[in-house]
Specification:
Chain A is an alpha+beta fold and 274 residues long. Chain A has seven helices and twelve strands. Chain A folds into two domains: 201 residues, no CATH class; 39 residues, no CATH class. In chain B, helix 6 runs antiparallel to helix 7, helix 7 crosses helix 8 and helix 8 runs antiparallel to helix 9. The chains are: A alpha+beta (274), B mainly alpha (408), C alpha+beta (364). Chains A and C meet through strand 6 and strand 11 of A and helix 7, helix 11, strand 10 and helix 12 of C.
Chain lengths: 274, 408, 364
């Protein structure tokens, strides 16, 4: 317990420092965007708050992506491989030709990432091995971390049965952890998530679960969307909704056909509701 | 050859002559036809957006009239059949008038086909050798049987008139088989038109095997109703006398075909609404409205009242044989069936769409004017054809009798 | 014939590349105009009927390239019956017209079905959140009419159906069915739960998925036994060897029989001249796919032939935020659709109609 407390204090101090750094960064960014004549169009891809893509023209009149003017979601891909890197080693996908499995690096989106492993958790971790939470304790959100990652205040994943270090590497905090305790890149969360969600991993590997874009042939070149691009790892079930995918604003509804003033009739039922 | 030329010139000359009433009638029809041409131009430059049709309800007034008029064309057989199969004396005299009506109705159907198409400029795609004829398509079959019916009636009608004109005897050896073929063919046109819509499982309201017989029974009520009206007008305005026996036979046919039609409609209502499955939604929309949308409900009940009312009067000889009341009953029958079989059958077939979207349909001004214009055009042709035919039947036009016409 | 091909292909090389280079304000049709006229005069000697007609139109009425090309288009054959030369000619003609109309280099692909490919689609109905992103991706890709002024000017090929979950409640228990006949009272809290195809299309909540609803997207099912193909009187709609039901828009007469026959309401009618702004037009097109359509013809989903014939996923698959949409080669046992058929519970919409869709719905 004492260890955890110390650990938390260290974390809190580091986090405070880090937070100011990020705030400064944001402040520096804002005037720049305001001064620019045309703000670059950034649209989110799967869920809001995860991977994003900035619109630019690949050729005149041929953008890499088209964004929805209503919701800001990516609506159309001119280049499905825009900003991707090779997925890296993935068990079960060894048969794919070299360079045919691509992912969008998530690390760069997570602004804290480069700092986590250096500023605060400089190779420091809980001394107990394996780094499991003692049975008489419950995981407690650390205010500083919760300030940076709001979802932690309402941490739900595992419903109190798991804690930070079940997923995050104990000493390399900018990495995740796999079955063997080895560090895993944030770009390959499937190696971590599959530890528990084996059925989903299997479906994902076969293209049944999750999303892939690019060439549809089974050995085609594809960008694979990784687990965290669609699911929020800290709040997968989204509270009482208990759904894996966060709610979002829908695109506009179809045009009303000629002769229809509104669509209120759709809400009525043809057979009376007894 | 000389006979042919003089037939054409005499015929043309005769139909061009007429009183003020005749010219006024033809001129008012012509005005409507000019309006029709203007809206047809609009529809084929701006597209079908000027009509009330949508992707949801894509067959409207045009298709409804098309279906109805195929029935009128087929209804002409109610004259030809008794005339040739039962040698009905009164009918035999006027059989050719029925053929003229059939010709007119088929031409009107063709015009509604033109009005209905999204690309009438491409209709040649259906005609080999330039286009492709598809044997799997009911529309292909429909076009074929309609054209066949037009040709058969033109042959029968004009050959008969030609013989009357020249005074040659009719060559019964080929004429009678062609007439019998035309009689059977008349059934085929309406059967195929019924198949056009009843072969689509995607539209449960139409997808039943009762459709052809319902079509034919309504056709044999609406067609003769129109013919009776025409006959009574002819009797009143020309020297040509149509026997009471012919009119009485027709009104009997109207009565019982109307009765069968009402019976079939009622059977459908019971079958569909007893279980009230999702497939009954179309009929339910027509009768009571669906999801609170009730545009067609008054039309349906008007049609029910017209049809049942006409039937109740028609079954009593006192009314049926009274030529003062009969025209009114014919008009109500005709109107009732026009609603029931046109708008009342075609439009609710699309409500809801096969994936459950409920929308409504209103004919636009363009659609209404184009429809009226085509009807005007039909009456225009019918007037010409009937006038010519009556002229020949009366002996006003005769080979070698041109002088008689000239002096008239 | 070789000469024929050359002359008809020439203008594309001459005019089209020039288009994108021009400033946006200049009328691109001006540049195309002169070349076209020369080419049509050059082509005067050709025996092909379409070229002859084009020339005739040109000399007779105007030297408007657009009109002449459209005139020639009127006389082309059904796409399936065209020879390779005629296809090339039609392709060149369309590329020239579209490039002029939309002010950029437009390509009209005529790639045939690839051997060994039978396209299939699967949709995870449990995953769909009803966000309609697929609907709008489809519009961005497939050059549908997207006007806003008049109803009917906006065409969408995918419909997303919202269905109520329904709730059985104690308060409803005292009502009976059949009601009013005294046969049975109570034991019934009727609710439309699970009722399909009786739903809402114009839903517009702030956020989806809503708690009390499920969603079901519907588009062309690319049936193995397509009723639309059977009823077409001119055989302009047919099934390609890779399983996609296509339409030759230039041969369609707009009779709408196919729309009536389709049990999935997959087909749309261009009720007016399509409203397609130049800057939104997708210049990569396929002859049987997303090339701009004309007034009065029917169109529908074709699984993005211009993409899928080149191995790329359809646009709707790529934007689905939840990965509910799956597409692949049914003949390849390793493809995602084959794996779904092997592993998941699938159903075909309205299977009782024996249309055998190649679009499968499945559950996790």
């Amino acid at each position: 317990m004492k260890k955890i407390a110390t650990f938390a204090t260290v974390l809190a101090i580091c986090g405070g420092g880090l937070y100011t750094v990020i705030a400064a960064e944001n402040a520096a960014e804002q005037p720049a965007t305001a001064a620019a004549p045309a703000e670059p169009l950034v649209c989110f891809e799967s869920r809001k708050g995860a991977s994003e893509v900035t619109q630019r023209d690949l050729k005149p009149g041929w953008p890499n992506v088209k964004c929805s003017p209503t919701t800001g979601a990516a609506l159309w891909y001119g280049d499905p491989f825009d900003g991707t890197v090779p997925m890296g080693k993935m068990p079960g996908l060894e048969n794919l030709p070299e360079g045919h499995a691509l992912v969008k690096p998530r690390s760069e989106k997570l602004a804290l990432m480069p700092l986590c492993g250096t500023s605060c958790h400089n190779g420091v971790g809980p001394q107990f091995t394996p780094p499991t939470l003692p049975k008489d304790k419950k995981p407690t959100p650390i205010p500083t971390m919760a300030g940076m990652v709001p979802d932690l205040a309402n941490f739900q994943h595992g419903r109190d049965r798991i804690w930070c270090l079940d997923c995050h590497h104990a000493t390399k905090r900018n990495m995740l952890v796999d079955n063997f305790g080895d560090p895993v890149s944030f770009d390959q969360p499937q190696l971590l998530c599959g530890k528990c969600h084996g059925d989903k991993l299997r479906d994902w590997r076969d293209g049944i679960h999750g999303k892939r874009i690019g060439e549809f042939a089974s050995d085609g070149k594809k960008r694979w969307f990784t687990c965290t691009e669609c699911h929020n790892p800290h709040n997968v079930q989204d509270g009482l909704r208990n759904k894996g995918f966060i709610q979002l604003q829908p695109e506009p509804s179809p045009q009303l056909p000629k002769g229809m003033a509104d669509a209120s009739h759709e809400k009525l039922h043809p057979i009376p509701q007894h | 050859m000389q006979q042919l030329i003089s037939f054409t010139t005499d015929y043309t000359r005769y139909i061009l002559k007429g009183g003020v009433k005749f010219y006024a009638w033809m001129a008012s029809l012509a005005v409507l036809m000019v309006g029709m041409m203007y809206v047809f131009y609009l529809q084929n430059t701006d597209g079908l957006i000027v009509t009330g049709m949508t992707s949801q309800i894509h067959d409207g007034l045009y298709f409804a009239n098309l279906v109805f008029l195929v029935g009128v064309a087929a209804g002409a057989v109610t004259i030809v059949f008794p005339a040739y199969a039962y040698h009905h004396e009164g009918m035999h005299k006027v059989a050719v008038l029925g053929e003229m009506l059939a010709i007119t109705a088929v031409i009107m159907v063709m015009m509604f086909v033109f009005a209905h198409m999204g690309r009438p400029d491409r209709l040649w795609h259906m005609v080999p050798p330039w286009g492709i004829y598809s044997f799997s398509s009911m529309l292909g079959w429909d076009v074929m049987v309609l054209n066949g019916y037009l040709i058969l009636n033109a042959i029968c009608g004009f050959y008969y008139l030609w013989c009357k004109y020249t005074g040659n005897p009719i060559n019964q050896k080929w004429f009678l088989p062609v007439v019998y073929l035309a009689i059977v063919w008349a059934l085929s046109i309406h059967t195929v038109t019924a198949f056009l819509i009843s072969t689509m499982p995607s539209r449960p309201m139409w997808h039943h095997s009762m459709m052809p017989i319902r079509f034919i029974s309504t056709a044999f009520a609406a067609g003769p109703a129109l013919i009776i009206l025409v006959f009574l007008i002819i009797r009143k305005n020309t020297k040509f006398w149509i026997d009471d026996s012919a009119i009485n036979l027709l009104s009997t046919i109207v009565t019982w075909c109307l009765g069968i039609a009402i019976f079939l409609t009622m059977s459908e209502v019971v079958v569909e609404l007893y279980a009230r499955t999702e497939h009954a939604n179309g009929l339910y929309y027509l009768m009571f409205g669906l999801h609170g949308l009730t545009k067609l409900v008054p039309w349906f009940w008007t049609s029910v009242i017209l049809m049942i009312g006409s039937f109740l009067f028609l079954i009593f000889p006192a009314y049926r044989l009274n030529y003062k009341v009969l025209p009114i009953l014919c008009v109500t029958t005709f109107a009732g069936i026009w609603i029931e079989k046109g708008m009342g059958l075609i439009v609710p077939g699309f409500i809801p769409t096969p994936i459950g979207e409920v929308t409504e349909y209103y004919p636009s001004f363009v659609e209404v004017l184009l429809t009226i214009g085509i009807w005007a055009f039909g009456f225009f042709i019918l007037t010409i054809l009937l006038k010519g035919a009556i002229g020949i039947l009366l002996g006003d036009i005769k080979y070698g009798g041109s002088k008689a016409v000239a002096t008239k | 014939m070789a000469i024929n091909e050359k002359t008809s292909a020439d203008p594309v090389r001459q005019s089209a590349p020039a288009c994108p280079a021009q400033p946006a304000s200049a009328d691109p049709s001006q540049a195309v105009l002169k070349t076209t006229r020369r080419d049509f005069l050059k082509a005067g000697g050709m025996l092909s009927m379409s070229s002859l007609m084009g020339t005739a139109a040109l000399m007779a009425q105007s030297d408007d390239a657009h009109a002449a090309i459209e005139w020639a288009e009127h006389f082309q054959k059904n796409y399936r019956l065209m020879t390779a030369e005629e296809k090339a000619e039609a392709k060149a003609r369309l590329e020239r017209r579209y490039s002029g109309e939309y002010g950029k280099e437009v390509t009209v692909d005529t790639t045939e079905a690839q051997p060994g490919v039978l396209m299939g689609y699967a949709l995870n109905i449990r995953k769909c959140i009803g966000c309609r992103r697929c609907v709008h991706a489809c519009v961005a890709e497939n050059n549908q009419s997207r006007g806003k002024d008049r109803p009917g000017e906006k065409i969408e090929w995918i419909q997303v159906l919202r269905m109520e979950r329904g709730k059985f409640e104690q308060e409803k228990m005292n009502h009976g069915y059949p009601e009013g006949l005294g046969i049975q009272v109570g034991g019934n809290a009727y609710t439309p739960a699970g009722q399909v195809l009786e739903g809402q299309y114009h839903y517009n909540p702030e956020k989806v998925p809503e708690e009390d609803a499920t969603y079901m997207p519907i588009a062309c099912m690319q049936c193995e036994k397509p009723p639309c193909v059977k009823v077409c009187p001119v055989r302009t709609t047919y099934r390609e060897p890779d399983g996609v039901v296509v339409i030759d828009y230039n041969w369609c007469i707009g009779c709408r029989m196919c729309m009536g026959a389709c049990p999935y309401w997959a087909r749309r009618l261009n009720v007016t001249n399509p409203v397609l702004p130049k800057e939104e037009m997708n210049p990569v097109t396929h002859y049987l796919g997303n090339r701009p359509r004309m007034r009065g013809v029917v169109e529908k989903c074709h699984w993005c032939l211009q993409r899928s014939r080149h191995g790329r996923y359809p646009a709707c698959v790529e934007v689905c935020p939840v990965g509910a949409r799956k597409f692949g080669n049914l003949l390849d046992p390793e493809s995602e659709v084959s794996k779904i058929l092997a592993r998941k519970n699938v159903f075909r919409l309205k299977a009782e109609l024996n249309t055998f869709p190649k679009f499968f719905y499945f559950y996790d």
